[in-house]
Amino acid sequence: MSRVLVAVMPFTGHVAPFRAVVRELVSRGHDVRVYTGEAFRAGFEALGARVLPWTEAPDFDENDLSATFPALRGRPGPRQLLANLEQLFLRTGVGQHRDLVAAWRSEPWDVLLGDALSTGASLVAETTGCRWASLSVVPLSIPSRDLPPAGLRLRPHHTAVGGARDAALRFLVNVAGAPLQRAYQQVRAGVQLPPTDRPFYLAWLSPQLLLALGSPALDYGRSDPPPNLVYVGAIPATSDAPLPDWWGQVASSTRPVVYVTQGTQNVDPTHLLEPALAALSARNVLVVASTGIRGRTRLPFSVPAGTRVADFVPQDRLMPFTSVMITNGGWGGVLGALSAGVPLVVAGGDLDKPDIAARVAYARAGIDLRTGRPNAAQVLAAYDRLTAEPAFRATARRLGTELRDLGGAPRIADEVERLAAA
Q1: Which portions of the chain are predicted below pLDDT 50?
Q2: Which of the following CATH numbers is that of domain 247-405: 3.60.10.10, 3.40.630.10, 3.40.50.2000, 3.30.70.20?
Q3: Domain Erythromycin biosynthesis protein CIII-like C-terminal spans what residues (predicted)?
């Protein structure tokens, strides 16, 4: 038995895959503690883990971030990404470090499994020298000599001109990211660690073991991957909530089932749900729509007769019945769909979602709408093309086989055990 400390950022999209990993580790007899937000305590304790809540670090409501971080208010698009990185992920690192150092002094662990966006995990690993694995539940944004910078919705162009473009963009992104690097240095000073030349986005990642949801086919095929990188496939989202009373209509439907979701961040239903439901009302399909907010099962607009609405739907239960998924591009949801061989229409608006949409289109497993706020005509055209061209579904099924073969939560547990025993 090993003592495992799991540090996960308190967002539903991060917690969901980590819950599957914690369940696997606990089932193997390991003593697991989880450092995360208070809102997720009950879910982890139900698995048999102990929970260390954010205390010195400012805990927050993921559906009202500006209440805790006023600097996030009124910053759409790329400005939101930069503000989120600084306020949520970097500057909370001082408080995370204090919480984790206190936990280490009280009860040291054998191995730390940290969210690859947890600054606190990287800082406490450096402070204590403990064994440390990172798990990236978002697409890897590690720079590569072969690729454009992440987050720009750009696909690689393997030509001399494309290489020159990407090199210039990498330089410009580093310049634009200088304030974030300064913030990281200030965080390091705040926990009495010396300055470093290592970029903050690499310092988050363990040099011992880097685990990543996804597969090589969804990472553009870089020639310079980190030597400690292990792709672990997909962990389909699950839910302990009871199935909605209309679930039998899904299981017995003779019409194609289309799943529409905006994930759990930026969930204004007028951005994607409203135009998608309007578009699909013109087709003979059964639509399942999720709002992404616990307890919210109604939408602020007229819902077509062929639509069923829930707050959350267990994706692992829904995907076997699903023909197409229309999504704003959360990585976990995208991987869950692809692991079931379901092709996608992706409306990625901000944060990492434009990059995810571009990856799906590059792999030919779906269509990138190239906006987070499409109109009904755009959604309908994408849906019609997706269902008319069999190549999209064939590619999704091939990617699904690859993602399943990479192992998911059991593979992650295997790798953590190997590191703990090293």
Answers
A1: none
A2: 3.40.50.2000
A3: 301-402
